[in-house]
Amino acid sequence: QVQLVESGGGLAQAGGSQRLSCAASGSIFSINVMGWYRQAPGKRRELVATITRYDSTNYADSVKGRFTISRDNAKNTVYLQMNSLKPEDTAVYYCNAAAYNAVAYWGKGTLVTVSS
To answer: What is the pLDDT of residues 38-88, one digit of tens each?
Structure first.
């Protein structure tokens, strides 16, 4: 089992920045890929960014050049640095861990609200 706890988020102004953190605990060795997803009101959950155990990253087109995903293996933590925020970035952001056996773990989510 893997437990994920997100922190960060809150209210930001358009053009501003925020950093989200996701601390993982439990069977860390089983994790292959970690990532961030988001779900805006009335919309489906969508991929934001992922990072593999070997630091290979992938981003949604909508956040490329603005968001950066990174990890600190010593702290078992993944970060999402969000710059140049837009009102359409408003969503609940979820941390995800995908295990080698294809089991997916989710955090409870943290709300990011971007005002115009």
So the answer is: 999 999 999 999 999 899 999 999 999 999 999 998 999 999 999 999 999
Positive or negative: CA dihedral 33, 70, 56, 53: negative
d(C-alpha 44, C-alpha 70), whole Å: 24
Nearest to 106 by CA among 4, 1, 7: 4
Q: How far apart are CA 48 and CA 74, in angstroms?
A: 23
Q: Residues for the chain: how many in total?
A: 116
The residue type found at 3 is Q
Question: pLDDT tens for residues 91-107?
Answer: 999 999 999 888 999 99
> Contact at 8 Å (CB) between 94 and 37?
yes
Run of H or E including 66: none
Burial of 30 (0-12, 13-18, 19+ CB in 10 A): middle
C-alpha to C-alpha distance for 65 and 54, rounded to whole angstroms:
21
Instruction: Give Cα separations from 82 to 16, 60, 79, 98, 100 (angstroms).
Output: 8, 13, 10, 22, 28
